Amino acid sequence: MNEEIFNKTKQTNKQKYDNGIYLKTQNFKDKSKQTCIKKYGVEYYSQTNISKKRYFNKISNELSNNYILLKFLNKFLSIKHKTCGKNFIIHRESYRTRIKRNHEICTICNPINKHWSVAEHRLFLYIKSIYNNIIIRNTFKIIC
After folding, report:
1. Cβ 84 vs Cβ 75: under 8 Å
2. pTM for this model (two decimals)
3. CA distance 88 to 134
4. In this model, does residue 1 exceed pLDDT 70?
5. CA distances from 66 to 81, 85, 104, 117, 133 (A)
6. In what order do the strands lie in the sheet with 86-91?
């Protein structure tokens, strides 16, 4: 886009809409809510059953065969982990982070706020599989 046209458009939008962006105006937000209420009966499209079903199907499809999505609870997911056989609830942001980092998403097998890294936990599980005595974790003491 020509810089001159861009600057002129920007200036016109500032004159019309104070902040320069129509999408940020209260008028746009109000119209958008009213349209959504008229079309779907709710203020935001994400509150519709159609949107919730789409999200449920998207999550179900991206889960490995090791998991079953049970419910979508607002910002939380209820999931069954076939390996440990337990159901767990995870916040969708924590879920996204674990998927992105390729970490175990089960909060039973990989607890949240556990005070150890995924790599440390994997090492612990390996040592546990070959060593039958007590394994001390999360200590900075010198072990003799």
Report:
1. no
2. 0.59
3. 28
4. no
5. 6, 10, 11, 22, 30
6. 67-73, 76-81, 86-91
